[in-house]
Every structure is written in C-alpha cells, then in structure tokens.
Amino acid sequence: MPDATIESVLQEGRIFQPPAELAARARIGSMEAYRELVARAEADPDAFWGEHAREQLHWFEPFHTVLDWSNPPFARWFEGGTTNLAYNCLDRHLDGPRAEKTALIWEGEPGDSRRFTYRELQAEVCKAANALKALGVGKGDLVALYMPMVPEAAIAMLACARIGAPHSVVFGGFSAEALRDRLIDGGVKVVITADGGFRKDKAVALKPAVDQALAGGACPTVEQVLVVRRTGEATPMEQGRDRWWHELVDSQSSDCPAVPMASEDRLFVLYTSGSTGKPKGVVHTTAGYNLWAHLTFQWIFDIRDDDIHWCTADVGWITGHSYIVYGPLSNGATTVMYEGAPRPSKPGAFWEVIQKHKVSIFYTAPTAIRAFMKSGREVPDQYDMSTLRILGTVGEPINPEAWMWYREVIGHGRCPVIDTWWQTETGGVMISPLPGATPTKPGSATLPLPGIAADIVDNEGHSVGVDEGGYLAVRRPWPGMMRTVHGDPERFRKSYWEHILGADGRPLYFAGDGARRDADGYFWVMGRVDDVISVSGHRLGSMEIESALVSHPSVAEAAVVGRPDDLKGEGIVAFVTLQTGLSGDAALGAELRKHVGAEIGPIARPDEIRFSDALPKTRSGKIMRRILRALAAGEEVSGDTSTLEDRSVLDALRV
Ligand code: WT7
User: pLDDT digits over 605-620, tens only?
Assistant: First the structure.
C-alpha cells in the first residue's frame, strides 16, 4: 500500500455510532453486551462454543467433546455429534410458519425470476439428492459444481450436503484448464454444470469447458455430468456420460432423508490461491463450518425474520457459500441470488434488484463500490432503496472515500457499514463491526467477533504496539477454521501454522495479511504480505500466473506482481523475458494475455506485460519482487538493493 494511503488511513478520525433504533432491537445491542460475550468466550472457550453449538444447530446425536486440539494444527470440533447441514438449512424450518416463508429469491440476468419457500426448496433439494444417488453418488464422493448463478447451484450444494457427498464448487469464470486441475486434484466423481449462463446481456456457454476439461480421459475419476438447461442453446451431450438435470431430477421423489454426518465429516473443498504453487483445496467439515456460517451471519447482520438479505458474490467463492446459501438458510432467512451484474445497458442493475425485492441487508465488495462511485450518484439516486438497513463489504481493504460514499449515497447515512475481514480458510467472518453495538470508522474492520483471538504480531509471535504494523494472526482455533489442504496436510501446516512461532510455544494461524491496530484496538487490514494479488477481491497467486506465462513457448521467464489500481484494488503487471532471438511487441503481449486467460481465466489476465532482457535477481538467483513492485507502481526503487546481482538490469526495466 503506498504511503499516501497509509497516511490518510492514520488520519481517519471519523466515528459513526450504531443507529439508536437498530441498537434498541439488536441481539447484541451495546459495546457492554459485546464485551460481555468476549469475556465469556475468553474465560472458557469450550463452554462458549459448546453452548452455541447446542443451541443453534440440530443434532441427531449430541457431541461429547467441544474441541480436541491435542494434535495442532489439526483441530477436531464437536466430536461424537452427528448433524446435517441441509437439515439445519431446510428441514428444521418446516415445523412452523417458516415452512411457507420465502427461502430463496432468484433474479435472472434477462429479468426472469423465481422464488422458493422453505418447503419448496427442501423438496427440490431432496429430488436433486435422489438424482445424485441415482448417478451412484454416495457418502464421501466428491461432486464438482461448475455453474452459473442459477437456483440449481444452491440446490445442488444442499443436495450434496444432504447425502454427505462433499462438493467442490469451481467458479464459472475459470477456464477449462483450471477446472481440469481441480477435478483431477479432488478426484471428482460427478460434475454438475449448465449449458451456459447469461453475462452482460448475452448467453455464454459453459458446458464446452467441461467437455474440454474431460477430453481424452484427462479426469479418469469423473463418471457422469449433470447438465442444467439455462440458456437453451444447442449443447452436445455425450451418451452415457451426460444427463440433463430436468430429465433426471424432476422425476425423482421429493423424499430423501438427510444423512446424519459426523461433525468432522468433510463438507466441501474450495480451491484458493496461495503464494506458492498450485491452488490449494481448502477443506471444511460439517458441524464447525455450519456453526460458524450460522453464528456469524446472525451476529454481523443482526438478522430479523422480515429481512431480505442479498450478497452479490458468486457461489463459486466462499462468500457465496457462507452468505448466499448456508448462513442465511441455516438462520431461516430470505436470501437473494442474482445472475446478472451492472453493465452499460443496465448500470443500475443492483439498485433495481434492491428496489424490486425490498432488500434490507446488502453485502458487496469494495471494487463494486468504487465502480459505482465512478459512474456517479445519479444512477443509484433513481431508485427507492429505503428498505436497506445494513450495508456490508468484503474481499479487500475498503478505502475511507469508498466507505463514506457507500454510507452516504447508498445508505443515506442511516445504515451501519459493516466491513468484514475473513478468508476462504476461516469459513466465515472473523473481524467485523456488530451493527447494533460497534461504533464504526471508515476503512476499519473494527474488532474481532466474540471468541476470535485475532492479534497483530511480529515474526516471533509477540503482539505489536499501537499503530505498529504486523502480521494478522489468530491465536486460538475457532469452529469455522479450515481443517486441512485436500490431499496435502503438510502444506496446510507449512502455509498457515509455521510462519510465526508462538512466543508461548503454541501454534498461531497466519492469515497472510498485514494489519495495524489503533489506540481503540481497531484493526486496519492493509492487504497481503505474501505473493498473493487481489484483483477486484479475487485472490490470485503470482506463481500461478507466472507458470501460465512460462507455459507459452515464447516465454523464458516471468515474474508477476500487483500494482495499486483505483478500481480493482490491484492490477497485474508481468515482467517477461523471451526465448533467445525473440523480441516482444504489442501483438505478443496480447497473445500472452489471452494465453493466461485460457490457462486460468479472464480475471488472471495481466493488465500490462513488460518485456525485458533480464529480471532483477539476488546473487542466489531469487527474483526480487519488491523491486518489481516498485517499478510496476512507477515508484523509485528504495531500500537495500545491495543483494542485486546485476544493477544494470534496473535501468533497463524502468519505463
Ligand atoms: C483475503 C481472503 C472471505 C471473503 C472473500 C475473499 C482479503 C477479505 C477483507 C477486508 C481487507 C480483506 C484479505 C484476505 N480481505 N476481506 N474486509 N479488508 N482485506 O476471500 O479469496 O479467501 O481472500 O481477502 O487479504 O486474506 P479470499
């Protein structure tokens, strides 16, 4: 983060109190109430989590042990208990009036929409679960979803959870190559996809990418493909392998018992980028994840029975898992799912959804807010958004200007802005204001949720002082924490638990983010301290993009860094050296960008490619990314360059 931004954050003195009317009705309605919860959790974490787990979830069998942390970093929560996430999200709401309450409102891109009551959604999930069984899917079998934002995506996730088949949702914007890697890594048995989806006013095919990923027997574990018809465009189906959803699912029985799952049974795998190597399959398990998605949703949005909640994420990311599907449904709330996005023909698309469906809680990303700011308040001002009561943001640091704009222009100063810090790995929100309790400051995620031992530490695990920067870490396990990296427990240990040595000998969870804490104890998250780049809130590993570039025959070596971007948070700059005899030009630059798009997905395409004869390296041959970052941002290269092997490289790289 450039110094100027840090300066403006440090000077940020504005504080906004929770609206009195909201606080009066809130579950946690004051800082005293918040501190009391924090103190209870500190005094006896097991009692605190045990009580919440018993009260908030349905158990087929009660658990006997809250936490087994005898073999860190491998935690076991709620051992002895059996529960089912789909049961908690659906069946337990069917006893009373909630059965006829709207569970899911779906808004299609072309303007079509569908609604499901809890009873209807449960029936659809049962049919889909029976269809999966008919395809031979049983407990423990991994099912991949590669889908547009249609109700069937949520239905398929819940159907998997119902029969104990873990899901692996792969974002529909990833390429066939990226999909193939994830299908192979997981050992996926069945893929659920759609003919296509609607993006920016046109139908975009999706199924061909699945065909391409599976071509030539590349994924030998994949037996069947279930295809939802969304666009209706001609779609080749492979006999014996591909089945239409409407042909198989619609004729199934709507009776399918939820399988009692052990607390630590695998619930889903979700891939995310790290600083090194290929994406990691983050593993979450049944009870702990369910509790964390449930509790955090209840706390951070102070959910009420008449709320209409809308999270604009894609179900392909953890935000969609926890706050479109599982958190809201586990609480019996009404959740909105939107297939579209703002686009030139419909710049007010989001505001139209809020107006049409009377949304009261709106949860989106800073990158979206910055884009809205740019097109001016004239657009949102045309819509009635008086139903809004809470505004949330997630995915990347939010600059105070965007925070203020969100509060004033979208919330008319009435709605608390909830900046939520968390990660795929944490399962749910970790640091966030509580709307009825926490005074907010523009740009700060404020304070850890009760029970979350978040801290800012130095290399040795000591807490740093007020306004000193350090690493964001978590000192104690929490129910929603990831359990392992799929197929690679050592990588789990190395990536998250070995960077910082706990001063007291206890392991610490290292999040990969840098942060600072002010005199009030408020957290200010500064961004990644590793080689992860955050483009519009999407996490991309520098090394993944580098590998994609190097796989092009013209490229000898590549180094990829992020550079600050007003709209996207970070943009991608690639420094590329070519094979001997080749020289870089605009056409090759365009070809390389396209190549990265095909290897990973359009979001990973570099904004700029700089060709050079050599990259700055240390004497031991390590690429000096710090220098490249400064060069990419157009800053002077400062700090120690004495380890640089060949200083003339620097001059050649300046533009
Ligand atoms: C990384 C996790 C979990 C939601 C979506 C992203 C960054 C997330 C914030 C925030 C500053 C944030 C961090 C984190 N991040 N929320 N409120 N303020 N930074 O999930 O893809 O796993 O990325 O997103 O850098 O480590 P993810």
Answer: 999 999 988 898 888 7
